[in-house]
Amino acid sequence: MEPTPFVSVVIPCRNADQHIGRALESVLANDYPRDRLEVPVTEGRGSNETLAIAERLAARHSQIRIIDNPGRRLAVALNLAVRNATGDVFLRADSSISRVGAAWRRVSP
Description:
Elements: E1 7-13, H1 20-29, E2 37-43, H2 50-60, E3 64-68, H3 74-84, E4 89-92
Parallel strand pairs: 1-2, 1-4, 2-3
Helix pairs in contact: 1-2
């Protein structure tokens, strides 16, 4: 049996306080092994509570890492996330996702 790959679920966000909590909880609610999962969140210095919400969840879930995105743009956010992620497999999720399906459970490097 092949080892379970380490997965990085990259979530770029800015001014997403209405969605980021649900998005992060959805990723973490999946049945993928928590010790094989990280969730780098690149936060683009928005003007609402997105960062505070993500930080509260990161304090409770070691898989979530907050990465500052001073460039505030999506391309910068994705580059920062990939540069800082450590996964064998990278998945990108929007901050507005409300449910993560089980299909990505079958990922392979």
